[in-house]
Amino acid sequence: MLLDHLKRAAAEREAQALTRRRRIAHTACAPHQSVGPLGETPASLLTFCSNDYLGLADHHALAEAMADGARRYGAGSGASHLVSGHSIAHAQLEERLAQWLAPSIPNARALYFCTGYMANLAVLTALGSAGATLFCESLNHASLIDGARLAKADVVRYPHGDVAALGDQLAESKSALKLIVTDSVFSMDGDIAPLSALLALAETHDAWLILDDAHGFGVLGEQGHGVLEHLGLVSERLIYLGTLGKAAGVAGAFVAAHELIIEHLINTARPYIYTTAAPPAVAHALLTSLDLIEGDEGHVRRAHLARLIAQLREGLGALAAQAGWELGDSDTAIQPLIVRDNALSLALSAALEAEGIRVGAIRPPTVAAGTARLRITLSASHTEGDVHRLLDALTRATAPFTQRDSASVDCKEAA
Ligand SMILES: *Cc1c(COP(=O)(O)O)cnc(C)c1O
Fold first, then answer.
1. 3-state class of 103 per DSSP?
2. Could you read off the pLDDT of 143-164 as tens digits, one per residue?
3. How many percent of the chain have pLDDT more than 90?
4. Which of 34, 86, 218, 359 has its CA 20 to 30 Å from the CA of residue 308?
């Protein structure tokens, strides 16, 4: 019965071009990556789909720091943080992260988690108790959606970027604790939430702002300290989540917030308490990652990334206009080319791959039905030549779809 059911579900996914398949990388995360099945010679692909925005994931200094951490602390932590797994490397990392966020969040402390997914479950379930209300942005990341589902709080959703609608919802609410929950940089769209306006609403309505800066930490702000530095926001009402497996190039996440909030998470958040602490070596490597982000190298990498983003947007804008597609309104390293149709997004992704270029086709349920897209992400490790190659290949891949009714396609079909 179960297997019959699953077979039908798989056939349905296949019919809607929604089947997901994993690919095997044979080399480190980098623009040029070898990809292919086990036991076969992998193909070398120029990739535009990682979240390694600064190109730190295969940085020799981080690999060396990870090895150094393993020599000092071994491979595993051995237990959860509250039992015996909390190491000096974790504590040093939390202290550094708290210092980074303290200019934006007075009295901030930081708490390190194994993953951003767990950190979001932890914050929303620990703070979203019965009687509270979570006001959730409609394009929030799946981990925030799942956290809201698990929380005992009431959940209200507001439309993407709609500050006025949220204001109305807050004004009507009689809830004892109001928590606004949003991505800062939207993961599939690349646009930035109107955080100044959201924070002003929080101040007006005695609410708190939980913000997930997975795609801003390390890349945004002069020092790479994230979206709060970028926008110059300061408030004790901010509850900040940054992830450390994207721009920071390693793994894990952290929450920075008022010390009483952090103390509450340590004591009550089940996704924090009931899991083995990340290997101390990972936290040790992250200390080096923070040095790189904040140092000269980080500045150079962010400046280079900004140039690549401008170059890509210029090319994609022309292409989207010609094909009748939509280029997302994004200034970040996430550039979505919204082609709408699931099968078309897959066909374009396949056409690029035939030219040795890897770009992810993002389909429902990750994005809304009818908004399938190529999600192109840039890294500071890309060169201008890489971006040029992508634009060239995309122009060729797009041609059959922009000239659907023209004679040239008929000729090709006849040939
Ligand atoms: C990737 C991501 C997460 C999850 O972080 P992990 O460390 O990968 O678990 C959370 N929120 C957003 C917006 C993300 O993009």
1. coil
2. 999 999 999 999 999 999 999 9
3. 93
4. 34
pLDDT score of 410: 40
DSSP 84: I
**Catalytic residue list contains 215:** yes
91-101 burial, b at 16+ Cβ within 10 Å, e below that, comes to eebbebbbebb
* Ligand 1 contact via 214 beta carbon (within 6 Å): yes
Mean pLDDT for the stretch of residues 25-44? 95
Backbone angles phi, psi at 255, to 5 degrees: -115, 130
pLDDT confidence of residue 403: 56
CB 93 within 8 A of CB 112: yes
For residue 19, what pLDDT is reported? 87
* 298, pLDDT greater than 50: yes
Nearest CA to ligand 1 atom 6: 116
Tell me if 54 is assigned to some domain. no
Distance 276 CA to ligand 1 centre (A): 19
CATH number at residue 197: 3.40.640.10
* Average confidence (pLDDT) over 342-355: 95
Residues 284 and 306 in one domain: no
Nearest ligand 1 atom to the CA of 215 is 15
The pLDDT value given to residue 408: 40
Identify the CA nearest to 288 among candidates 76, 101, 60.
60
147 Cα to the center of ligand 1, angstroms: 12
Please tell me if the CB atom of residue 141 comes closer than 6 angstroms to any atom of ligand 1.
Answer: yes
State if residue 117 touches ligand 1 by the CB under 6 angstroms criterion: yes
305 and 229 in one domain? no
User: 340: domain range?
Assistant: 19-48+297-406
